[in-house]
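Dock nicotinamide-adenine-dinucleotide; give full complex structure.
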Amino acid sequence: MRLSIIGTGYVGLVTGACFAKLGHRLICVDIDLEKVQKINNGISPIYEQGLENLLSTYKDKITATTDYQDALEKSDVTFLCVGTPSMKNGSIDISYLKEATKQIATILKNKKTWHLIVVKSTVLPGTTQQIILPLLEQYSGKKGGTDFGLAMNPEFLKEGVAIQDFLQPDRIVIGYYDERSRTTLRELYKNFTCPLVETSLSAAEMIKYASNAFLATKISFINEIGNLCKHLGIDTYEVASGMGLDSRIGRPFLDSGIGWGGSCFPKDVDALIAWSKEIKEPTRIIKSVKEVNTDQPLRLVKILQKHIPRLKGKTIGILGLAFKPDTDDIRDSRAIPIVKELLRKGAHIKAYDPQAIDNFKTLYPTIEYCTKATDVLSSDAILITTKWKEFTTLDFQGKIVIDGRKITQAKNAKIYEGVCW
Ligand code: NAD
């Protein structure tokens, strides 16, 4: 099929590269010219395992542009993958999505052939039908469901393993407005072997939010259990293994630590809380899930202070700035509140991450950054904040190590403590 992707961030670019691998022709649109140029040179503007390899291998199938007209003319299906970031009140900002929708609609006005618009960005239930559809109709002067198609196809990929998740998903959810959109997406995904869940537009939107809120709940739950375990010296990971064997529970997402971050869970949980307030349906569980997550990283600093009560003037090493391993994404990384708290207490920070230093510098330009993990070891104590593989084999040379991510061993640490074990 001839596909276009609007917004070449983590979701758009992975979607584009994977569809190219599956044999489709792709044209990607972004407002960021630098990203566009990089993609056209087969270079990935973000770090995601395997992505650059796909972009350069399928360079002849993927082009990028800032020109909507060109992209819409050369495609029959357009995926909307622009960001939907959090606003101050927790609700999501859909202005990028609205802007992109208007641009698409203006071009659809003069397009002679049927075109399918698929919302892939995460949006609150009701958005596709109540906001995107009217905008498309208003700016194109055409009728949704007959002149053009509309669908909502949420993305469940995990950064770090995004390509594998896209190509081998647990399920594909297709919310559809009209029958032709449904059959077009069925055809597009026909070679995938996972279940295809076909729903209303709003149910598709809700499946995405409910899934992320549930996964965040699982992590906050095991962290709360972990905080109890810590008092008795119980290893929460043993507890998680025992619990996880129950098929009703499952082991994934029971890794206790300093909590969840990233571009999705915090934003999606906040959006659900804000939306529930707006529609006056209290979400007690989801609010508590967020509260546990806000407190959890600060526990690492409290444990550190058992060993070094006065942090003023001390040098504290931070291993890991990305919100999780195998990504350079620092959005809502748990390292952020930890660094903030350490600075508030007057500590000097030496930080290292294999991929995320440049991104972290935009938030904290003046802390000391190290070019290798071993440079952090001259600190008075070390906090492990991201589970990068290279930290598991590091020789800690007699240092105090407080671990927020349960690396398998902290070799030769003088003192080793975990946040929940
Ligand atoms: P991102 O911020 O990495 O990328 C968004 C891209 O859209 C940027 O490159 C930006 O320049 C571009 N853009 C903004 N306005 C535009 C416009 N008018 N026209 C063209 N391009 C425009 O975002 P992301 O992480 O890829 O997330 C995109 C959506 O997918 C969000 O709704 C997010 O919640 C959802 N999602 C993200 C993930 C994830 O792991 N990152 C997973 C599932 C779903």
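Observed: Residues 298-418 form a domain with the Rossmann fold fold (CATH 3.40.50.720).
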